[in-house]
Amino acid sequence: MTQQQSKIKELVSIGIYTAVYFLVVCFSTALLKLTVPIFNSIMIPALNALLAGIVYLLVLDKVNRFGALTTIGSVTGLFFLITGHFPLAFVPGVVFSLLADLIQYKTQLNQKVKLYLGYTLFSFGLTGPLLPLWFMKRAYINELASRGKSQAYIDHVFSAITSTSFIVCIISILISSVIGMMIGLKIYRKYFAAQEGSINADEG
Amino acid sequence: MPTRVNFDPRTKLIIVLLTTLIFILNISFMIEIIFVIFLSCLLMLNGNHKLGVIYLVIFSLLILCNLTIFSEINDSWSILGSFLLIGGRRILPTLMAATFAMTNTHIGEWVASLQKLKLPFNLILPLVIVFRYFPTLLNNTKAIFKALKFRGLITNKFELILHPIKGLEYILVPILVSTDTIATELSSVVFIRGMGNQMPHTSIYANRFQWLDWLVIVVSVLLMIGGIVI
């Protein structure tokens, strides 16, 4: 019975950390919606990666078991699915959090490398909400084509938007997740390391 | 007119998924209009009369703007404007389906339906916790804001946006410290309510498909097929 109790406690903790993670997502979305007028959804994963490092670290600390990160990614995806805002966000959410889990628990890398790499991959899970942009683009192209614009013109309009925004998105996620992990580690050492201390990411 | 039909949560889920599919496939304009009207009828049946009308008005305004203001696309401003308009028109059905799914469905109904769909318990329990804990979390955040103001650490909320890292530390650290206690309390609640029981759970919500559920699903599938063929 006690084994089942501890399992339930783990699942409840995962739920609570998912809620906190969701709060951070909401905060960064609201911040960007207020400051950047258009195409702000491209920057959401990056800003979120900047802020959520400490949540990721505490999940690793409290629920130190393979599957915790995957559950968080899937639950976030399910929440998206039911609320219907970004139903396709389910797929990247599950895939990238599973990859992060594999790196954290199934590889023999240096602890520090694991943290940074896993967190970067985990941050990519939020790219799901960007997928609608691509589909909107296709609808727009159809509309242009039906108005008799030539294919060359359409290509010209969209070549710059897609490739640059895609690269900017990926690079910004990479940079901000590294910085976010640094901030997270700093906060972790200041407040939580004395209590728990199962993550040992100090130099060495 | 207090008429309200109770839809099965599974029907709502199917409608959300179908709407996404329609959003991805490029359906013809006629079918799109019919589908939006269909969705607003569903919203009205579900009890949100006001919202159904508001969504319809927004949709027709978007179409009107698209046909009048941006009928000529030549400079970059009209490209941007019409892109946003068409994008907004495309996203609107998904938002309507989400409103349809989220409103007037008790969380117990969702749990019963998700269990009928054979979703693993390891996913359902965290999801329920998210639904249950999120309002509490928002309240806690407000309380933390008050405490910070009381102690003179911040004067208004915009200060946190100017110093995001400091704001993060002030807001997130108290929340994360309190999670441990809350996790213990909630897990004992879960345990006492017998949610960890391995046997199949019973529910007070019947959640059976009625003829209206079948009708809604058949109509939406037919609309989607029609959208692909035409």
From TrEMBL, chain A:
It comes from the Bacteria. This is Uncharacterized protein. NCBIfam families: Trep_Strep. The chain crosses the membrane at residues 12-32, 38-59, 88-104, 116-136, 156-185. InterPro entries: CHP02185_IM. Keywords: Membrane, Transmembrane, Transmembrane helix.
